[in-house]
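Narrative of activities, Objective 1.

The group set out to show that a structural description can be obtained from nothing but a protein's sequence at a throughput compatible with the screening campaign. Below is one input-output pair from the validation batch, recorded exactly as produced.
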Amino acid sequence: MSHLRLLPKNVHLIRDAYDDFLLSREAALLSPRTIEFYERTTGDFVSWLEKNRIEEPVSRDVRAYLTHCKGRGLSDSSVHGFARGVKAFLRFSHAEGYLVHEIKFRMPKVPIKPMPVLNSEEIKTLLKACITLRDKLVICFLVDTGA
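Output recorded for this entry:
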């Protein structure tokens, strides 16, 4: 099991790593929405670590956090988003020397949602609504190619 811990000679806490992580995202000129994403996802993770008094998290702690997210009723896609934020934060923390070991964990799967398709009656109704031959051709092209 890969352990993740703060460097022994380093006085930085996980909160310092988080603040530095956000600063690095801003310095990289990421969009405000991307920075908000990292604030929401990694900020929640850091708060969870602090609430649970975890100073030297390991991969098990990340899995427990993601299970906690799912238990809060978040969708699979949202849990995956939180995992992406956490992974970026942990990689940064290791690369910048805040953490001794890089932590690795399996990303949660996101089920593939089938695309809604029109049935034959809906296609006929759509074709009847077309005014020009061009409109009908475009609809036929989209239906025939699955677009």
